[in-house]
């Protein structure tokens, strides 16, 4: 019986992979990976490692979650090291908990390797901190879509008092999200930012307001982070990544 490592691959930049994640990837016999995994990360796999794509595209799963669970079980029975590689952190809307519970019930040894979540790191690459003294003392990470593609069931009024609200997987529902936030009491003039392909060379930022998003005026392409809050106004003072792209990276 082998062991399964549930590994977070970080937000996109392969240099943000943790040392522990890299170690697991290098010794894996099988890697089951998601759509947003940077291909450069998979280059660290050893010769002969079996790479199995189990991602989701355009709202459609290549494999349903129960089938992915079954694959983890089957591969663990015949391989020493199996890595389940997920974007960001596997337990921030990554369904890592479901896989861990399944493995526990099946008696399969597993280890969790946290990853850098895109919810915090991607805004930083756009020069937007999720908290800042005198501007934002609280933040929350919210899913932008519910189960089976439905609109999420969210207590919108509870978000009004949160300084920074970060939506993951919320691009398709951005207009309805903005409408609900305004209806709940958020100012229509609240600044927002969308960050496409964050932490990569293709990163793109779109700044706007809740009102403009609610009116359907903002075009965005996934994958992207949707952040709402006054911290967006700090971007001009903190933005660093665009300049770094033209320099030798550390």
UniProtKB/TrEMBL annotation:
The protein's Enzyme Commission number: 2.1.1.107
InterPro entries linked: 4pyrrol_Mease, 4pyrrol_Methylase_sf, 4pyrrole_Mease_sub1, 4pyrrole_Mease_sub2, CobA/CysG_C, Siro_Cobalamin_biosynth, Uropor_MeTrfase_CS
CDD domains with a match to the protein in the record: SUMT
GO-annotated biological processes: cobalamin biosynthetic process; methylation; siroheme biosynthetic process
UniProt domain Tetrapyrrole methylase: residue ranges: 3-213
Pathway assigned to this chain's UniProt record: Porphyrin-containing compound metabolism; siroheme biosynthesis; precorrin-2 from uroporphyrinogen III: step 1/1; Cofactor biosynthesis; adenosylcobalamin biosynthesis; precorrin-2 from uroporphyrinogen III: step 1/1
Listed SUPFAM superfamilies: Tetrapyrrole methylase
A Pfam family assignment: TP_methylase
Keyword set, alphabetical order: Cobalamin biosynthesis, Methyltransferase, Porphyrin biosynthesis, S-adenosyl-L-methionine, Transferase
GO molecular function, one term: uroporphyrin-III C-methyltransferase activity
Family: Belongs to the precorrin methyltransferase family.
The protein's name in its UniProt record: uroporphyrinogen-III C-methyltransferase
Organism: Persephonella hydrogeniphila
